[in-house]
Amino acid sequence: MVEELDRKVQAGGYKTIVFVICSVAALGGLLFGLDQGFIANSLETLTKHYQFTVHDKESYSAILATGGILGALLSGVFARFLGRKKSLLLAGFIFTAASAYSALLPAIGVLSALRFALGFGVGMASFVVPLYLSETAPAAIRGSMGTLFQLMITIGIFLISLTNVYIARTFVSPTTALPLMFLTITLFAALMFGGGFILPESPRWLMLKGRKEKAIEVLRRTLNTQEEIDTEIGEIEEALHGPQGAGFGIVFQGYFLKVLVVGVLLQMFQQLVGINVMIYYAPTIFGYAGMKGIVAMMTVPTVNMLFTFPAIFLVEKWGRKKLLYVGAVSMFVTMVAAGLAFQSIGTVTDAAAIGSAPKMVLLFAVIFYIFGFAVSWGPVVWLVCSEIFPLEGREVGMTITTMVNWTFAGLVMANALTFMETFGNASIFFLFSGFCVVAIAFVALFVPETRGITLEEMEFNLKNGVSLRHLGKRG
Ligand code: BGC
Fold it and tell me: Is residue 275 within 6 Å of ligand 1 at its C-beta?
């Protein structure tokens, strides 16, 4: 029996199932990006059809984040009680249904409710997908998954920006263009939903529920030899005898609270440096400086995607903190430059009257700003948040930090355009540059370097009173 299964596994089962697991997980990241990147190049078409005011633009953009907060909160519960696979299927179903229904162009109230639902799916996916992967994928690909997930987000943002530009230019009528834009998301969402059915359940969750036979069956599909299966089962059993997932009460434990504050502030600053103002409103902002066309629409998503690739290697080579410094300094300088460019433009609104110097400064500022984020704060913050929490509080820690990310994303998106209207276009860039300075000080004083140390060693340090900054130092 075992020999027969071994033969089956060696006959290629390993590769197929691992490929399916990675692809479905990748789709989760991609959908995050598709929804996040949707606004930038559809806002004009949406405005034409729904007669959006500035306030409508902000609320329709930001409601995704509100859904994200709730999705992140409940996904911990779903993942524990329904299982990882069913939670993924649920996220896939929500993505598919909400984007398909949006393509029917319902009244604005319903359309906003659907974007809230999409946000709920994104919030769930941003928690369940990395969890499922870390529990199911073979050890060899576990480590790179954190950065890979971010890479898929940026590819999603790029893809939807490109298809939305193409659709908006090809089909002038919003009643044709908008459904096609929503159907692009539906297509990938349906792939994730359909693909989810072939996924195996996470062996760790099965063991948690006392279904050892089923867990072994799954491992036979993903691992190559009986020996590997036995080792893995042994490790899971050992882990199950250790401390188990704690409830929210763990936030009152001093050692946990310390790292929670680091995670919360990292996620808060990731949003307060202004990234989503660029991701969502770059075409609008370039428009204020009299720049339109493909450069205004595609610069941000392209640079964002390209510079996430080097992060995958640099995060191990340079370490997390060095990257955070490089990113924050680069974002500080470029935000000041963008602010000065807008200051020199002043209140001029006639595109022809705006000189080429401020336009060039703005363009280069945006390019180096996005480079700074993509190579550092984008992937590193998610990565560090998945590393710093002790095992028993990892689910709670990641749920809270993910919710903080969406809360600040929503706050920024919901107020950015009004802020610019009220205080002048330059003001918001100076504000973001100020947050970059505070973020640099915070990294220097409180963030540990988590490269090259096992999670268990770090947990040991944490529980033995080592200061935050030195948590990553080997004893
Ligand atoms: C952030 C998102 C942002 C994306 C851009 C992620 O790390 O959490 O808010 O839209 O990066 O690439």
Answer: yes
Domain limits at 284? 248-475
* C-alpha to C-alpha distance for 170 and 193, rounded to whole angstroms: 29
304 CB near ligand 1 (under 6 Å): yes
Would the pLDDT of 7 be above 80?
Answer: no
**Nearest CA residue ID for atom 10, ligand 1:** 276
Ligand 1 centroid from CA 280, angstroms: 11
Which among 394, 354, 386, 381 is positioned nearest to 442, based on CA atoms?
A: 381
pLDDT at 121 over 90: yes
Tell me 449's DSSP state. Answer: P
Q: Is 407 in the pocket of ligand 1 (CB under 6 A)?
A: no
Taking residue 419's Cβ as centre, other Cβ atoms within 10 Å add up to 17
304 domain residue, yes or no: yes
Give per-residue pLDDT as tens, 10-31.
Answer: 444 455 777 778 787 788 899 9
Is the Cβ atom of 146 under 6 angstroms away from ligand 1? no
Q: Is 363 in the pocket of ligand 1 (CB under 6 A)?
A: no
Exposure class string for 302-316: b at 16+ Cβ within 10 A, else e: bbbbebbeebbebbe
Give the Cα separation of 96 and 183 in Å (integer). Answer: 9
Tell which of 169, 199, 229 closes a domain. Answer: 199
* pTM listed for this prediction: 0.88
Neighbour tally for 364: CB within 10 Å = 14
Residue type present at position 246:
A
DSSP structure class, residue 251: G
Which sign does the torsion angle of CA 172, 178, 184, 185 carry?
positive
Cβ of 402 closer than 6 Å to ligand 1, yes or no, is no
Whether 61 is in the pocket of ligand 1, judged by its Cβ within 6 Å, is no
Encoded tokens for 177: 């263009």
CA 89 from chain center: how many Å? Answer: 19
Residue 267 alpha carbon, nearest atom of ligand 1: 8
Is 186 in a helix, a strand, or coil?
helix
427-459 b/e (C-beta count within 10 Å ≥ 16 → b): ebbbbbbebbeebbebbeebbbbbbebeeeebb
CATH number of the CATH domain containing 275 = 1.20.1250.20
pLDDT tens string 396-430 = 998 999 999 999 999 999 999 999 999 999 999 99
Residue ending a domain, choose from 159, 178, 199: 199
The pair phi, psi for residue 41, each rounded to 5°, is: -100, 10
Q: Whose CA is nearest to atom 12 of ligand 1?
A: 154
Please state, in angstroms and rounded to a whole number, the distance separating the CA atoms of residues 191 and 30: 11
Determine the residue of 276, 277, 312, 412 to mutate for testing ligand 1's pocket, defined as the one with the most ligand atoms within 8 A of the Cβ atom: 276
Is there an atom of ligand 1 within 6 Å of 150 CB? yes
